[in-house]
Amino acid sequence: MLAIYVVSDATGETVERIVRSALVQFKKAPAKVVRRGHVRTPKQLRELVREAADQNSLILHTLVSHELRRLMLVESRLVGVDAMDLMGPTLDRLATHLGLTPQEKPGLFKQLVEDKSRQVEAVEFAFRHDDGQKADELGGAEVVLVGVSRTMKTPTALYLAYKGWFAANVPIIPEIPLPPRLLSLPADRVFCLTMATGRLLELRLVRADRLEISATSYTSPQAIQREARHCRLVCADHGWQSIDVTAKSVEEVAQEIVGLLPGEEQARSRE
């Protein structure tokens, strides 16, 4: 029986899949796969090589650290174990053609996959919780944006979602009570987007013209001022942080929001 050690400084899942895919080409192969993940120190590596030396074995590894790859070569030769480096030649060729130096950080691919998965989930969340939809699920949001109509709530929430944040937005309308779930959230997760009334009027007039909406309170300067005043009072009552989005880009607003999040959330944004 051949013991095939698949060794990685991350989980080892990728190299194990490669090995098992190759093994199916050998009918009834007398072999077993032994996965050893998170091998990141010389001590771990030496112990693994000694274990493999006690049996008929082959080591296949995807160690990204140059030092560990070199040590694997030395140690395996000392005890007569066949060890094959699956990562080193690929990194060397890529470095040559790209003119770059590899980071040699274990688990980067897994992190990339997880980040992409989170981004997809966050975008789906933002669409499901746009404009006050599914307000009973606001507890799952990391950021909730509130404000009157046309204060960039939706585009900002989507931008945050593309950055991996679970964001929702809820309109503040004087005649409509706010969702109870929103009022129960920690104040540091809710951000009130405000805008100069003159600029807000311009945006609403453009939207009304595009949608062929006749003149209503939606584009009335007096009504807009009342809405803005009501919004400021609501936000102050609940201790929500206010951000003036006038003349700011979506990116600038999003960066400001992330900078105001609690310490542990800011730490995640830097990971």
The termini sit apart by 44 Å
Largest sheet: 4 strands, parallel
Order of helices and strands: EHEHEHEHHEHEHEHHEHH
Average the pLDDT over all residues and give the rounded result: 88
Question: Do you know the CATH topology of the largest domain?
Answer: Rossmann fold
Tally of DSSP β-strands: 8
**What's the Cα radius of gyration?**
28 Å
For the record, the CATH class of the largest domain is Alpha Beta
By secondary-structure content and strand pairing, the structural class works out as alpha/beta
> What portion of residues belong to β-strands?
15-25%
Number of domains: 2
Name given to the CATH architecture of the largest domain: 3-Layer(aba) Sandwich
Provide the low-confidence segments as ranges. none
- The shape is elongated
How would you describe the overall organization of this protein?
By secondary structure, the chain is of the alpha/beta class. The protein has two domains: 2-106, Rossmann fold; 113-269, Rossmann fold (3-Layer(aba) Sandwich). It has eleven helices and eight strands. The strands form two sheets. Strands 2-1-3-4 form a four-stranded parallel sheet, with helices on both faces. Strands 6-5-7-8 form a four-stranded parallel sheet, with helices on both faces. Helix 1 links the parallel strand 1 (2-8) and strand 2. Helix 2 (42-53) runs parallel beside helix 3 (66-79) and helix 8 crosses helix 9 (221-238). The protein starts with a strand and ends with a helix. 30% of the residues are buried.
